[in-house]
Amino acid sequence: MKKIKSIASVAMLAAGLGFSGQAAYAADISFMSFSYAEEAAKPSVEALLKGFEAQTKLTVEPLGYAWGDMQKNIFLRSRSKTLPSVAQLSERWLPSFANVAGLVDLNEVYGKDKLAAIFAPDALAMGQIGSKQYALPLISGSIGLIANKAVLEKAGVTKTPTTIEEFRSALVAVRDKVPNSVPYTMATKNNGSILLDFMIWTWTFGGEIIDEQGKVKIGNGDAGKQALGFMVSLMKDRLAAPEIDRPDARRLVAQGASAFFFDAPQARTHLRSFSGQGPAFDANVLPLSTPVAVAGKEPASIQWGHLLVQFSADGKAKADAPASQFITYLTSDDAQSKFPLEQSALPVTKSARANPKVTGDAFLTAWAKAAGNPRRNEVGIWPNAAELTQIIGEEAQGALLGQKSVDDAIQAMHKRLETSMANVNKQN
Question: pTM of whole model > 0.85?
Fold first, then answer.
């Protein structure tokens, strides 16, 4: 934000006001964050907290939870009325929290027009549900394919794959020429991670899981079966492995034991950390377009970002409340010129995206080119997203582990998704 002229000028008027309606904390603000629980990101979060505390003289209590535990713990805190002042979310979680008591509509805090003037439209849209601005973006980007160039060179792969056939051939080369490797660290555990790989491959084969009207499509036609069948075939041929989640993929790629995985651009920061090489490892990190099933088709990628939500006892807040000031700081030019880039992601404000540090970052430029036109997560937009994710993860994993056939898994997935969506569609 431009020297916090619009939001922060109001926020800085009352730095000493307490966060009304919340349970008592030793600090002025409590911040629940999964980045704070990540080894690679924690130092950057700590730097943000120190910067905010130095500027405002307010104190922040960081509450670190693993990414996979965040949703569960927010719901538990909601029931016990111990919600944090501010929480960090993945963009696809937001619909699940839309009805949590105390969630603040940030349009009412800062003003809809002011927010539109400050934030990049694609980033701001991630925090919107209907006419409400339930979250502001913290970092943005997409979920896309990443390759380790050093592993590909070791396997003798000289041409980056652009089609499914070329991708499979590259995986076979890695399997055969790089000992003890997992060529493609496909997500095979954690429903939230499995969903992303499955969604990308479903789109790649021309299918949908759920359309914009809420109609389940995965069992219609052959695309869903082709996508899951492709994933199962990779497991059978030892081109992927069981018990792999996104953190496992990052470690294996960083250690030269894997060639490909899907992740957000933030992966570069994790790879730097897990490799022990820091920025020197960047030479191995290659953003790629997802291989296509038919030449000329649009490569698949998923819209991605981290959001900030604010809670209060009555769902109301003022721009000069401590929690509001904290969100203002996290989205200011000062913070946005550092934190997103340290996380290898795009800033969320118009002014920060125009910063030469961003426009001159070769990795982010290559990422944007490879991502093409990211699609919105078609599962995460629904209020029952957590249940939908569980269904898809369970059925896909059942097929990946050989516990059921691809046909049975897709049909069971379709029926279970229809049952889950029936109540949502009744309410619409």
Answer: no
